[in-house]
Amino acid sequence: MAAGKPLTATFVKNINRPGKYFDNSRYGLFLRIDKQGRKYWIQRIVISGKRREIGLGNFPLVTLSMAREQAVENKRKTYLGGDPLAEKRKAKMDTDFASVVEKYLEAKLAEFRSEKHKKQWNATLDTYAIPVIGNRAVETIDVTDIVSVLKPIWEEKTETASRLRGRIEKVLSWATVNELRIGDNPARWKGNLSEVLPKPSKVATVKHHPALAQSDTGRWWADLSSRDGISIKALQFAALTASGSGEIRGMTWDEVDFEAGHWTIPAARMKARRQHRVPLTPSMIVLLKELPRLEGSPYVFFGAKGGMLSDMALSSVMRKMHKADLAKCGPGYFDAKSGSPAVPHGLRSTFRDWAAEEGYDHHMAELALAHNVDSMVVRAYRRTDALERRRKMMVAWEKFLKKE
């Protein structure tokens, strides 16, 4: 459409045909409509003797009157020797997705459970999102952009893709609250991406941690008990309590109540963000009381220089045990289903299978693993964590584990 009459708000709202629609002004303003029907405000302007085009935003986010005001302001800047395009590029550097991710991480640093968690959180964005939308201003990111990030890994790496989607959603929500963008969050799942991507549960293949076969528990425990070292003791305690490696490695002495006979893991250290009490059996208490204590270190199972044990410490013990058993022409310690060597986290699965076969209540076993049970309403009315009942169950599990 050639320059003619000035554009009107009604015309801009109703026109959908792809093309360029010039406003009849001296400021080079026109509306561009692409093949998808999206509308953009563009200004043609001479800067330092060269004709350039500057994007002024999308309609309806930027109205006709707003576009005209910005066009006048840009013209004023060039008249005074300024460069509105350079200013826009500089401003965009601060609001592109990659920069906003950094700002989000700085603002939310206290919410991360550990430095490792923060690195994992950031790594998925660096690997999959930043290469695709990193240089895009957050105000321009739409559903199409999010799909272009997620679709290549949605079926092959569903769990990673699902976490990535949630992290992008949080970054964009933070950007909205901080007035860096407006409108719906394009990374929202319900009623949004759920309409264009298959449900994660329909395409994901559940991957279980290789578990120690129940028939191998006695042999494995005897092998473990013949060894010495702080990592060995940590793995023993993990097996006895059916606790995760992270909870064990982060365990501090002030979390242990010997008199009451339980270990209380604070919500900040739990995946479900809820406090969890672990009943201590007589054998567990003996194990803890025999441990050396390092002055100045709060950790029960301390690592180098009194810090937390490495996240590979327990895994390394199990791997070495497996290889040593094979070297002695033993059968090793394999997962019966996958045929893979058992890992520390798999001990929780061994416990869960044992509890089911022994007929223990479903809720009791799930509580022992700190899993959510039933609906939020049911959990609200469940006033006890069945600590004493679980203590008896863990005594029975210990006897099975040691084949006593």
From TrEMBL:
Q: Which UniProt keywords apply?
A: DNA integration, DNA recombination, DNA-binding
Gene Ontology molecular function: any one: DNA binding
Domain Core-binding (CB) stretches: 95-176
Q: Which PROSITE patterns match?
A: CB, TYR_RECOMBINASE
Task: Look up the domain of life of the source.
Answer: Bacteria
Q: Which GO terms describe its biological process?
A: DNA integration; DNA recombination
In this chain the Tyr recombinase domain maps to 207-394
Determine if Cell wall biogenesis/degradation is one of this entry's keywords. no
Q: Where is the signal peptide?
A: none
UniProt-listed SUPFAM superfamilies: DNA breaking-rejoining enzymes (SSF56349)
Query: Which InterPro entries does the record match to this protein?
Result: CB, DNA_brk_join_enz, Integrase-like_cat_sf, Integrase_catalytic, Integrase_DNA-bd_sf, Integrase_DNA_bind_dom, Integrase_recombinase_N, Phage_int_M
Any one Pfam family here would be Phage_int_M
Q: Determine if DNA-binding is one of this entry's keywords.
A: yes
Concerning its family, UniProt says: Belongs to the 'phage' integrase family.
Q: Which PANTHER family match?
A: PROPHAGE INTEGRASE, PROPHAGE INTEGRASE INTS-RELATED
Stated name of the protein: Prophage CP4-57 integrase
Give the source lineage, highest ranks first.
Answer: Bacteria, Pseudomonadati, Pseudomonadota, Alphaproteobacteria, Rhodobacterales
